[in-house]
From TrEMBL:
Entry EC no(s): 3.6.1.1
Keywords on record: Hydrolase, Magnesium, Metal-binding
Cofactor(s) needed: Mg(2+)
Keyword Acyltransferase: no
The organism's place on the tree of life at top rank: Bacteria
Gene3D superfamilies: Inorganic pyrophosphatase (3.90.80.10)
Name of protein: inorganic diphosphatase
A Pfam entry, by short name: Pyrophosphatase
């Protein structure tokens, strides 16, 4: 099923059945491809890490947090994206490293908002402004940073360099520590190689769409 056929199917049957948020939701909310649809898995109120069950689209418990790490902002995935060869090749070109592979997951996204949104398993409209280039054991695991569309505090921001440093440092600390710590001997360390702006964020998203299409769109 190609993209046109999938869109036609969703328009015809989308109101009858709940679509899988990874495969059944459009990446972009508008024709200008400026506003993303983001599926939110966890919120700052969650002490359990939830993750979408890829086969069914239902939200499942990934793991209870072993430490006091709480995601500072909304966190989830970008529909119809996938981290594979094109995404990994771009990371290699930007870092100068070799041997990087995709993590074979949808691209993660963190959405900045001043609202206390307590409900996960929702869709939000947001605008990408940058991202963290993150490596997890040699796998690319980018974290796109976006702002909630029309948010009172963050909605005017167009690039990550306009975000207060304290907000970015809080996010960075979470992503570097939210997995099992301390790192066991012999395990690869999670690292953030750099923070990039809106232009590179768009490149990462579009490459993730290309990787997705090569994997899932026939």
């Amino acid at each position: 099923m190609n993209n046109a056929e999938l869109n036609e199917f969703l328009e015809k049957y989308g109101q009858m059945f709940r679509p899988n948020p990874w495969h059944g939701i459009k990446t972009w909310d508008d024709e200008s491809k400026r506003v993303l649809n983001a599926y939110i898995e966890i919120t700052p109120n969650d002490r359990v890490k939830y993750e979408v069950h890829k086969e069914s689209g239902y939200l499942m418990v990934d793991r209870p947090q072993k430490f006091s790490n709480i995601i500072p902002q909304l966190y989830g995935l970008i529909p119809r994206t996938y981290s594979d060869k094109k995404s990994a090749d771009f990371a290699e070109s930007e870092t100068g490293r070799t041997g990087i592979v995709g993590d074979l997951d949808p691209i993660d996204i963190c959405v900045l908002t001043e609202k206390n949104i307590k409900q996960g398993d929702i869709l939000v409209n947001c605008v990408p402004i940058g991202g963290f280039r993150m490596l997890d054991g040699g796998e690319i695991d980018d974290k796109i940073i976006a702002v909630l569309k029309d948010d009172a505090m963050f909605g005017h921001i167009t690039d990550v360099d306009q975000v207060p440093t304290a907000v970015l440092e809080e996010l960075k600390h979470y992503f570097l520590t939210y997995k099992e710590i301390p790192v066991k001997e012999g395990e690869a360390k999670v690292e953030i190689t750099d923070l990039y702006g809106a232009e590179d964020a768009m490149k990462v998203i579009n490459l993730g769409i290309e990787d997705y299409n090569e994997k899932y769109v026939k």
